[in-house]
Each structure stands twice: as C-alpha cells, then as structure tokens.
Amino acid sequence: MPDNSVLKRINRILANYDPAGIVIDPQNSRGDEYSYEAEEIANKLMHVRSVGELRDTVYAVFVSWLKIPDIPESGQRNAGPIEKYNEIAMEIWELRNWKASCEP
Q1: 48: left (phi > 0), else alpha (psi -120 to 50), else beta?
Q2: What is the rounded distance in angstroms from the CA atom of residue 55 to the CA atom of residue 85?
Q3: DSSP summary character for residue 65
Q4: Contacts of 59 (CB under 8 A, 6+ apart)
Q5: Is the dihedral of CA 55, 60, 63, 64 positive or negative?
Q6: What is the CB-side half-sphere exposure of residue 79 using CA atoms within 13 A?
Q7: Is 25:44 a contact under the CB 8 Å cutoff?
Q8: pLDDT (tens digit, 9 = 90+) per residue, 41-75?
C-alpha cells in the first residue's frame, strides 16, 4: 500500500488537471474523485524509469478506468489524447523523485 501522503498528492494532481472532467469545482472538490486511479498510479510509481514511461502508465490507468467507447474514426481513445497527460506525469514524477530523496 502506498504512503497516504503520496496518494493524497497524486489525487490532488489528478483533480487539478481533471483529465476525465469529473471535478465540477476544483477549489471545493472532495479530493477523492480520482482515488482509485491515484492508488493504481501510486502502486506503479516506483517501478517506472522515466517521465515518459510514467505518462504512458498514467494514460493506461485512465484508459482502463474510463469505460467510454473509443471513437475510431477520430483516432480518439476513451481517455483522450495521450499528450494531455504530459504535465500530469511531470508533476507526479517530481513527487516521485522528492519522495525517493526523502527515504533513507
């Protein structure tokens, strides 16, 4: 089980970017809208070797959780374009590196 503070921070990052469009008011969100996704990402976090791999991991988590059909004629995946996960991955990567530097 990942550290609770890491889970909360990942959840907050996801809520701030809101890739699934489920946070109506980010300033007043409950902070748990992305708890399942955050936990899955946190469980995989220390196994990724680069921010690009993390971006792919975050994207795969959203593809698996968002059960909206793909739109083949547009090339859109149900989680949207992978590029919209670049900044999310960068922030989580910074959190990962910070957390790793704090561990003995």
Answers
A1: beta
A2: 6
A3: H
A4: 79, 82, 85
A5: negative
A6: 17
A7: no
A8: 999 998 999 999 999 999 999 988 876 555 555 44
Show the tokens assigned to 31. 């902070």
The CA distance from 99 to 93, in Å, is 10
Q: How far is CA 23 from CA 20, 58, 64, 86, in A?
A: 8, 18, 19, 19
- The per-residue pLDDT for range 32-42, each reduced to its tens digit, is 789 999 999 99
> Does pLDDT of 103 surpass 60?
yes
Q: Spell out the domains of the chain, with CATH numbers in brackets.
A: 4-20+30-102 (1.10.340)
Helix (H, G, I), strand (E, B) or coil at 51: helix
Give the pTM.
Answer: 0.81
How far is 76 from 17, CA to CA, in rounded Å? 19
- Looking up tokens 């083949």 gives 72
Residue 47: its H or E element:
none
Distance (Å, rounded) from C-alpha 69 to C-alpha 46? 30
